[in-house]
Amino acid sequence: MDGTRSQERRKCNRYPLALPIRYRVTPRNAPPLAGGGTTFDISPAGLSFQCLEALPVGSHIEIVAEWPGKTAGRYPLDLRMTGFVIRSNQDGAAVCVTSHKLCADAAAALAYRASA
Fold it and tell me: How far apart are CA 84 and CA 47, in angstroms?
């Protein structure tokens, strides 16, 4: 058995993508935190991203990433994810993703339709 693969604990391969994100963290017994950053890498089961402050480990997190493609060649897409912060410091955070969905950015689609 390959020694490098046996040390890998991730369920899915992560891919290096630098996507702008917005996030909202809901810590227990504390007000929600919001911020932004850029992804380092991403997979269906997890992601890591740059952030300016350490986030509370174990907290629920909602993330919206600006996907590089467009639906129907016109409308921006967002990758919406939820999960839990599993590691964090002032340089970045890692998240275990529990759900993800690629959807059209409704506000941008409405603005586009209004200008057409």
Answer: 11
